[in-house]
Amino acid sequence: MNSRRPIIALASVGVIIIxxxxxxxxxxxxxxxxxxxxxxxxxxxxxxxxxxxxEAEMRQPIVPxxxxxxxxxxxxxxxxxxxxxxxxxxxxxxxxxxxADTTFNPASLAKLTTTLVALKRLGPDYRFTTRVYTxxxxxxxxxxxxxxxxxxxxPSFGDASANVxxxxxxxxxxxRVKGKVLAAPGFSFNFNERAEESAEFAARVMxxxxxxxxxxxxxxxxxxxxxxxxLREILLYMNAHSNNFVADRLGAFLGGPQQIVRVLVEELxxxxxxxxxxxxxxxxxxxxxxxxxxxxxxALLEEAKRHNLxxxxxxxxxxxxxxxxxxxxxxxxxxxxxxxKTGTLTTTDGGMSNxxxxxxxxxxxxxxxxxxxxxxxxxxxxxxxxxxxAETINGHQPAPxxxxxxxxxxxxxxxxxxxxxSEIRDQSLVKKTE
Length: 434
Hints:
Layout: H1 5-45, H2 52-58, H3 68-73, E1 82-88, E2 94-98, H4 110-122, E3 129-134, E4 137-138, E5 143-145, E6 148-152, H5 159-171, E7 176-177, E8 180-183, H6 195-206, E9 212-215, E10 221-227, H7 231-241, H8 244-253, H9 257-266, H10 290-306, E11 338-345, E12 352-359, E13 367-374, H11 378-392, E14 417-420
């Protein structure tokens, strides 16, 4: 008797069992989908639309065909440290779902919530105002005998803004400031929190040969005002470069992170225990689920449409625009066919590498995705996210948003506007000289 025969038989049975267990979930899904198609066909053949009960049955949770846990496990990853949800905009097709209702640190994906609330509360054409005041007179030689004041809360104020102000001053005959260039509290230059330093750096750009710089409440006569780029352009810049300063300043202007959370819970109906924000930028300790991220993205698309905007007006085009998504999705065939937002933390929660956004194809609904990864293997997780997304939507034909050679200019300086003022409209920014 061959002593190896029982071992071989047991091994064969084991292989068969593994194969069956592997195939069963996919088979059940295929059978259920086929049954749904048959049922729909029967309803149609009877000459009537599916009944409400039938539609309710069809809305039962759809089992995705992609085994994300197995995919991550095969790459030496701990599946519980990853959260994934990839589905069509209408939610009828789920490509991948794993820990979709588990909270993770969204990192800079939190900027999607700030973008949504800012758009809802302020509108896409809102502009921040920087007012220019003086407490002195200008002589025939173009010397201002007094101080020049800058007052405003524009989070995007930088070199381009300072140059526009300097040009307007020269057009008014002011080429030198005998006194100081002073910034009112709250003024910022090139994302600097300190008004004193912002005044110094802005003065360098304007080249007014002033005697000094500093921080002081604005006073005197308003000369003119500078209107920032419209909010939609500020939001696009913020998301493309994942600018924390702009996001946190916007968040404060909107009432703080808790006000943003209130909108998410009360208006978007996110479960209160599944969303918390310590900051509007995504720094530090925040929590959201992959499903919650997709709810925010869908709401953002709806709000954008309400203002006649497209997704790419608010979010960078992956693989095309400058910024954190510039090198993403390379060699996948989907470059420049999706918009997205990255979210990266190096130490908080052990590190996070996230990507979320919308893929546009020629043959199906827009595809929403949120891929969150916890751990300090930041670079590897970025590569995995791109690979996973490309694999799950493989077979769909990309619909490019921009040409691969296109590089959009963010915060274009020609959209800054000088507005003449005959009187001071905001008394909170100026302290009149008695």
